[in-house]
Amino acid sequence: MKQNNNCFILGGARSGKSHYAETLARKAEHESGFEVVYIATARAGDEEMARRIRHHQKNRPGNWKTIEEPLTLSDTLKRQASPQRVLLVDCLTLWLMNLLMLEDENRLHREIEDLLASVNHLPGQIILVSNEVGLGIIPMGELTRRYVDEAGWLHQQLAKKMDQVILMVAGLPHHLKGERNGKTNS
After folding, report:
1. Does a structural domain hold residue 2?
2. Using one digit for the tens of pLDDT, what is the confidence trace for 96-136?
3. Does 126 reside within a domain?
4. Catalytic site residue 56?
C-alpha cells in the first residue's frame, strides 16, 4: 500500500539533481524518521568515473545504507522497500546505459517493464534521479540516439506514475507535477 510521496527528479549534468534528491531524503529522515537507502547504479569504467563515484560516496551521510545495483533495479527496490524507508536511486540514465551495453533487447525491456510495474506499488518513499538528455542536439551515433530515445520514453512513463516530477535547472527545482508548498501542479 503506497502512502508516501514518490519523486522523480530530472536535470542536465551539474544541474543539482543529486544534491536536491539527497536533501529530500534527509528531510524524510529527520522529519519522519525514515531510514535512507541509497541505490547507486554507476559502474566505474575508468578513473574519471571512479573519482565521481568517490565524490558522491564522500558526501553521503555515514548512516545511509548504500547498495550498488547497475542492472536489476526493480528487484532491488522490491527487496529494500518498507513503510519507514526512503529509497533514493541515482541515476536511471546510468542504469539504462548499463542495460543497453548488454546488447540484450529482451533484458532491457524486461527490466524497464519491471521498474514501471513496481514503482507505484512499493511501500515507503521512492526518489528517482535521472539525466534529461533530450534537450540537446540529436546525437550522430546509433547507440547514442537509441540511448536518448530510450531515456525519453522511460522518463515519459515514469512521469505519469510518480507523484512529483521536478526538473532541476542551475540548482533550482522547477516543479512540473505534484505538490509544492500546498499547491498542486499536474
Report:
1. no
2. 999 999 989 999 999 999 999 999 899 999 999 999 988 87
3. yes
4. yes
